[in-house]
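go over both lines:
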Amino acid sequence: MPDEVLSRQALNRALLERQMLLWRSPAPAAAADRAGRVIGAVEHLLGLQAQAPFPPYYGLWSRLAGFRPDELAALITGRQVVRIALMRGTIHLVSARDCLALRPLIQPVLDRALAATYGRQLAGVDTRALAAAGRTLTEAEPRTFSELGALLAEQWPGHSPAALAQGVRSLVPLVQVPPRAVWGAAGLARHTPAEAWLGRPLGRGTSLDTIVLRYLAAFGPASVRDAQAWSGLTRLREVADRLRPGLRTFRDENGTELLDLPDAPRPDPGTPAPVRMVAEYDNLILSHADRTRVVSESDRPRLYGRNGVFPGTVLVDGFVAGLWRVARSASAVTLTVEPFGKIGARDRDAITDEAGRMLAFAAPAGAARDIRFTPAR
């Protein structure tokens, strides 16, 4: 029997449902329940990309009703969530449990990136000795990469301090410690080993099979190439083949095989999708090889080319219809929306309402708030 074909609209609604963007999780009253809700969302999403300190706050705001910045800030300072290099070699905010479980599985991605980017600069360096020295230095006290590189260069003169520090970043599971990424605070990125910060060793019992199943729960239905694009890992076809007897298979409109959990939600393609303001670097946009389920090929180039910053996006009827950015001054916060095309009055009103809620979340008390639309590009 041929596989069922899922339209782009069907894939969009499935992705939004699993990304908690068709609805916002209600806010519990008890503080402990609120913390559990945040950790549960972070784990369900397999982390939030956190190349910059604060996008995860906006990512959770877009998904959780009544979310407050102090909820995540408390989890960071309380060592219940951490920021660490993981999928695709990029910084992610994950739970302490997922930090310890995921990092060993993602190590091949970091090894490959290190060899490709810094292999020549680290020629002749014993990487085991480098990892041991870097671990000792960052266990003694959290350090910036500049500080770490300068200290390592004393042992490996003639090698780039930056390359030495990046070698340790790849070889040792370094987390960024507060006040970095604490809402309302400022701080340089200082690093210490995850095991020292969390008081527990890295996990060895989690399998790639489990991670692929969790990926499908958060991002499926998806192809093997999609899972590889999300993780940075290769050879996941072998994992998919092991899992295939327990999965459902579909095809997209181009004939690509898609895998999914049998009981995962796949909403009716006609399900209404509310306007959403999606965070910078959000994995909603970055976790598939084929991203047409959320952004058209013609609009996709608009997301790149801004000094390496992946912008916040505006979803209208489930698809990227523009960008947003926030600018702050001493007394005001301005949110600017850049539509990709003409937006109808009803959708413009919905965007304005959502932007107002975002400003209420992000702007300091007493600051003036302004919402602006640029001409459609």
